[in-house]
From TrEMBL, chain A:
Keyword ATP-binding appears in the UniProt entry: no
UniProt membrane topology term: Multi-pass membrane protein
Name of the protein described by the UniProt record: sn-glycerol-3-phosphate transport system permease protein UgpA
Predominant place of localization: membrane
Subunit structure: The complex is composed of two ATP-binding proteins (UgpC), two transmembrane proteins (UgpA and UgpE) and a solute-binding protein (UgpB).
SUPFAM superfamilies xrefs: MetI-like (SSF161098)
CDD domains: TM_PBP2
UniProt subcellular location: Cell inner membrane; Cell membrane
Length: 452, 282
């Protein structure tokens, strides 16, 4: 029964993947990553074979899911290759002009050699190692390791194979159904508008499904998932809206605008640990200025060292403050590309300032927004480590323990490389998924004027 | 915001009296953004007693704090370590990426697309995701507690290769042909023609690489255990993790000192950085 369900889901996923407008290069990358991941994963344990430990049902489900991913990735790559690479991929590769210098073939390789060598040793190899380690019981400094198949992953999930097998395919079904509905309707009709309006349901379904799939408690991953989701979303939302607002203010030409621009951008030079220290001072329950100001107004300022929500807010504030300069920088550049004639024409037609901003400026700079979404998410996922380490150390009671912090805590703090690597793989999949999503979304955007 | 001001986005116009509220708004925003740093600068001069009293005037302990931070807690040495590391990373990254960009744009060789794809894929692979395995690899190579561990893994960067590739492709396609007609080889072409045309890109990349390297925290914490080799972002924790209560002044001073070099680099290279970013945006 379980197997039939998953095979059905696999078929569905493969079809969706091969029909979707996935970026061909991204598709190839996913296929490559998934293929290498499963090769390593199944080196020690064949499907339904010598699965050991607890949660064998969950492990079998995960094994099937891994196969499905590879099938989808390969199907997608084959489809992309048969379609001739697609417009974007073709452009990306033929953009490489034919060479001009006719020296021996060794010269370009010599130029590339250092870069390729470093990438091979410090990037490709460690990423394969991460997948390999994730299936092992390995300890820091210990030469021996034991195979645990998918046990490291299964521990993080709820023990019920039905839930693990049921929810992700359900989320996939929602996403696929919505995409199908949208592609069948013609633009301009009411049903198309409805389908477009419902399209955020797909990501929401995925987020909710993952919440129920990750197990609660100390060994489970639900707490880390919620903390990562909340803090990352907070940072992205705050630093991007603040960045856009401030960029909109100083992108105009008035005397001194460039000075204000520089003064607004410069926290960008501050490091994440220093941002943590500065906000550690400001939010200090006894000596900090926030508590003092709250006291002046007559409010009782709770301590972020015991209040989980306030601790998360402090992290979000500190990290966004450090990063807002980056967003201002890109938004100022993007705002220069907004065609002035269209904005003026809209003003003549009687569109108010807010309406012009929402209807003309925001759509024009959408490509930059999507680009920034990925850089902001990467920042919120990884660079926040230093801020957290100096500000909250993951506390109170794990409320600010985000994915990267937990990886280091488990992998280095307790020396459990295998479990740490398993969490790294989860984060890896999330990053690749988000990048692919960004590629797809930004390709589908139509813009007037320049942009990224 | 009044209508005519919103329209004037991107318009080059004379200074008018109507922009005063833009100035007010900008100053408020600048003060808000600058507040954590201004507050830190104030605290850096005060004793703990003055901090608890919330005095808004600078204290008298700056010199004392400086001595404590710079000499006793070794921030001076740590900043030197950071400077060496960041400079090496910046130089290595620039040279290697420029060479790779050169190979991709001005040469034709078997497997170029495949190699390019291989570099492209790494854009999706942040180092932090595989940091445990990376740590294991560097340990196996015997590089821990050395400058090598801080520099070598970051000397190659897909992003920088792309930045250079994009820049080279935006240059006129006739350049290499003309150079060849004049009898210039690839190296002469690179140093005599490409280099003078690439300062903006190099400047932008230098700002990004230097700041990135200077601000690295997680990786140095993992690979540098020896106190004398610590970089500044690590050694700041020595200011916080005292056995007694925290002295806030030295902590803030350390945080500010650690932020000075990237800020100087940013200010010095602001022009090429801005125009370099604009190029990479296309």
């Amino acid at each position: 029964m379980l197997l039939i369900l998953t095979v059905l889901a696999a078929a569905l996923a493969a079809v969706v993947a091969s029909r979707g407008r996935l970026h061909p290069l991204a598709g190839g990358a996913v296929g490559l990553a998934a293929a290498s991941a499963t090769t390593w994963t199944f080196a020690g344990c064949a499907l339904g074979g010598d699965v050991t430990g607890d949660n064998t049902g969950v492990q079998r489900v995960l094994a099937v899911a891994a196969v499905v991913t590879v099938a989808a990735g390969v199907a997608r790559t084959v489809a992309a290759l048969r379609a001739g690479g697609g417009p974007a991929g073709e452009a990306m590769l033929t953009e490489l002009r034919s060479g001009r210098f006719r020296t021996g073939a060794w010269l370009p390789w010599l130029l590339l050699a250092p870069t390729l060598a470093i990438l091979a040793v410090f990037l490709y190899y460690p990423s394969f190692q991460t997948f390999a380690l994730s299936t092992k019981l390995a300890r820091m400094g210990a030469p021996r390791s034991a195979d645990v198949c998918l046990g490291n992953f299964a521990e993080l999930l709820v023990p019920s194979p039905y839930l693990v097998a049921g929810l992700p395919p359900a989320a996939v079904a929602v996403v696929a159904g919505l995409a199908l509905w949208r592609s069948r309707t013609t633009p301009g009709t009411a049903s198309h508008t409805a389908a477009a309006a419902l399209s955020p349901l797909g990501p929401i379904a995925t987020v909710v499904a993952l919440y129920f799939v990750f197990a609660p408690g100390r060994t489970g991953y639900r707490g880390v998932y919620v903390a990562t989701l909340g803090i990352s979303f907070g940072i992205v939302a705050l630093s991007m809206t603040a960045g856009l607002g401030l960029a909109y203010l100083v992108a105009r030409r008035f005397r001194g605008a460039s000075v204000y621009r520089t003064l607004l951008i410069w926290p960008y030079a501050v490091s994440p640990p220093v941002a943590g220290i500065l906000f550690f001072m400001m939010f200090d329950p006894t000596a900090g200025v926030m508590a003092h100001l709250a006291g002046v107004v007559g409010l009782d300022f709770p301590s972020y060292r015991t209040d989980g929500v306030l601790a998360q807010a402090a992290i979000v504030l500190a990290a966004s403050w450090k990063w807002v300069g980056h967003n201002i920088l890109f938004y100022v550049a993007a705002l220069q590309t907004v065609p002035r004639e269209i904005v003026e024409a809209a003003a003549i037609d009687g569109a108010g300032a807010w309406r012009r901003f929402v209807r003309i400026v925001v759509p024009t700079i959408a490509p930059v927004t999507f680009f920034l979404l990925v850089t902001n998410l990467t920042y919120a996922f990884f660079d926040v480590y230093g801020t957290i380490d100096y500000l909250t150390r993951g506390g109170p009671s794990g409320r600010t323990t985000v994915a990267i912090y937990e990886i280091i805590r488990v992998g280095v703090g307790t020396g459990d490389l295998g479990r740490g690597a398993a969490q790294s793989v989860i984060l890896f999949i999330a990053v690749i998924g988000l990048t692919v999503w960004q590629f797809r979304r930004s390709e589908g955007r139509i813009t007037y004027g320049g942009g990224a | 915001m009044t209508d005519n001001l919103t329209i004037s986005v991107g318009r080059r116009g004379p200074f008018t009296g109507r922009t005063w509220h833009l100035h007010v708004l900008s100053v408020v925003c600048v003060l808000l953004i600058g507040f954590p740093l201004l507050y830190a600068a104030l605290v850096a001069t005060q004793t703990n007693a003055e901090v608890f009293a919330f005095r808004l005037t600078p204290g008298s302990s700056f010199g004392e704090h400086f001595h404590k931070v710079w000499v006793e807690r070794g921030i001076g040495r740590a900043m030197w370590n950071s400077l060496v590391m960041s400079t090496l990373v910046t130089v290595a990254k620039t040279v290697l990426s420029m060479a790779a960009g050169l190979a991709f744009v001005y040469f034709r060789f078997r497997g170029r697309s495949l190699v390019f794809l291989g570099v492209l894929v790494t854009l999706m692979m942040p180092t932090e995701v595989m940091i445990l395995a990376l740590f294991r690899v560097t340990s196996d190579l015997g590089m821990t507690d050395s400058l090598w561990a801080l520099v070598v893994p970051f000397a190659a960067s897909a992003t920088s290769v792309f930045l250079f590739r994009q820049h080279f492709m935006s240059l006129p396609a006739e350049l290499p042909e003309a150079a060849q007609l004049d009898g210039a080889g690839p190296f002469q072409f690179c140093f005599r023609i490409l280099l003078p045309l690439s300062w903006n890109t190099i400047g932008a990349l230098a700002v990004v690489s230097f700041t990135y390297a200077w601000n690295m925290y997680l990786w140095p914490v993992l690979v540098i255990k020896d106190a004398s080799g610590q970089v500044v972002q690590q050694s700041l924790s020595a200011l916080r993790a005292t056995d007694q209560a925290i002295s806030y002044g030295p902590l803030m001073l350390g945080a500010l000192l650690a932020s000075v070099p990237p800020l100087l680099v940013f200010l010095a290279l602001q022009k090429p950085f801005m125009s370099g970013m604009a190029i990479s945006d296309k």
